[in-house]
Design goal:
CATH architecture of the largest domain: Orthogonal Bundle
CATH class of the largest domain: Mainly Alpha
Strand content: 5-15%
Strand order of the largest sheet: 3-4-5
Distance between the termini: 116 Å
Oligomer: single chain
Order of helices and strands: HEEHHHHHHHHHEEEHHHHHH
Structural class: mainly alpha
Number of domains: 2
Helix content: 40-55%
Radius of gyration: 31 Å
Largest sheet: 3 strands, antiparallel
Number of helices: 16
Number of strands: 5
Shape: globular
């Protein structure tokens, strides 16, 4: 042992009565971190302070609570499930742990999305969904990712471009519904009712497909919709009145479809359901027979299915967009655009689409682009015609 080692040994030891050296007990260490909060007069806690002793009973949840937590996780938003599915697949390829992930893995995945040239808003949204999907207390630090995203924003101007959904206004919506009904089949009845409802309800796709038959009350000239909550009204239930129109024929289309469901023995549960080519409503059993297997949404229609049907009937009706993508969100955009172009106030638009109070979204995103597209300041300039005789 070197002299230095001997000195260190003596420093860490003390004498006892018989003259032998024994190691001294380690000094008490402060037990604080960046989140420690002390009241005036309270001493800094140390490692030798008496601490509350927890048993297994304090650490475990019951089987019922565990099952409820699993169901809540399975029934999370489709966007969150998609974000995590893609993240988990990437982690598997890279040999990384997906959940809970490290800050390094989180940062590297963010850079991976940037390398794909995605929009800034898309990257930020996906990374936020991934971060909030991590177990409590194990969320990665996002400061490095945000640093990279800031640089990405500066160097990739195209990544800031936002492509809004093409607004499916009434001149587009009516031909789509008529085309869907042309064959007089249940799937066409469902789609036309779904489109009329989506336009008039001004709902987000996930809000539409999450509705149950018990949430709807159909009378002769209107439909009442009970909504437990929505994106901007968490924990706030609403009853929304949808008045019918001659061109929309919401009551007729919705009642025809709901009556057909009743003939199939369906009077409760999801409003919008998958319909097989045979004209029957799909069930978990029929899905398994057809090789479809179980889905996380069960018998509730997926938002992507609504998206696919909107695209299908838009094309089938021979309609053309202005370059903006056609999607199910176009039903919400179309209703907002028609209202705004007809002179609805900002407050009326916010209320109709259940946007947050003071939101500029409906006016700036749906109404103004459509209105401005019809303007041409160069119409003020006379058309030049060289063959015309010059004025004296």
């Amino acid at each position: 042992m070197s002299l230095r080692d001997q000195d260190e040994e003596i420093v860490d030891a003390e004498l006892v009565e018989d003259g032998e050296l024994v190691r001294a007990a380690p000094a008490a260490r402060p037990l604080v971190d960046a989140h420690t909060v002390l009241m005036p007069g309270e001493e800094i806690p140390t490692s030798d302070d008496p601490r509350t002793t927890y048993t297994e009973r304090d650490l475990y949840v019951s089987e019922e609570t565990a099952q409820a937590l699993k169901e809540a996780e399975r029934e999370g938003s489709p966007q969150r499930r998609t974000a995590m599915r893609l993240f988990e697949a990437w982690c598997a390829e890279q040999g990384r742990v997906a959940k809970p992930c490290t800050t390094a893995t989180y940062t590297e995945y963010g850079r991976h999305l940037m390398a794909k040239g995605l929009k800034v808003t898309t990257i930020r949204h996906y990374m936020s969904l991934i971060r909030t999907s991590m177990p409590p207390g194990k969320k990665p630090d996002n400061s490095l990712f945000l640093l990279l995203l800031g640089q990405y924003r500066k160097k990739n101007k195209r990544a800031l471009r936002r492509k809004e959904a093409f607004p499916i206004t009434l001149p587009y919506l009516v031909p789509m519904m008529e085309k869907a009904e042309a064959d007089d089949r249940p799937i066409g009845w469902r789609d036309s009712a779904m489109f009329a409802f989506g336009y008039r309800f001004l709902g987000r796709s996930i809000e539409d497909v999450d509705l149950d038959l018990e949430d709807l009350t159909i009378i002769d000239d209107r439909v009442f919709v009970w909504l437990a909550e929505d994106k901007t009204h968490k924990g706030e239930e609403q009853t929304i009145t949808l008045h019918d129109r001659e061109d929309l024929r919401l009551v007729f289309r919705l009642r025809r479809y709901v009556d057909w469901l009743a003939e199939q023995g369906i009077t409760t549960g999801p409003v919008w359901r998958e319909i097989l080519r045979s004209g029957k409503v799909a069930t978990p059993e029929t899905r398994a027979t057809k090789g479809g297997g179980a889905t996380k949404r069960g018998i509730y229609l997926r938002p992507q299915t609504v998206n696919d049907r909107v695209k299908y009937w838009f094309a089938a009706a021979g309609l053309k967009s202005d370059g903006r993508p056609v999607s199910s969100h176009g039903l919400r955009a179309g209703g907002a655009t028609d209202l705004g172009m007809a002179g609805a106030t900002d407050e009326e638009l916010e209320e109709a689409g259940r946007w947050k109070k003071g939101s500029r979204m409906p006016r700036e995103r749906y109404v103004r682009p459509t209105r401005d597209a019809g303007r041409d300041v160069f119409k003020r300039v006379p058309v030049h015609n060289p063959a015309a005789p010059a004025e004296e």
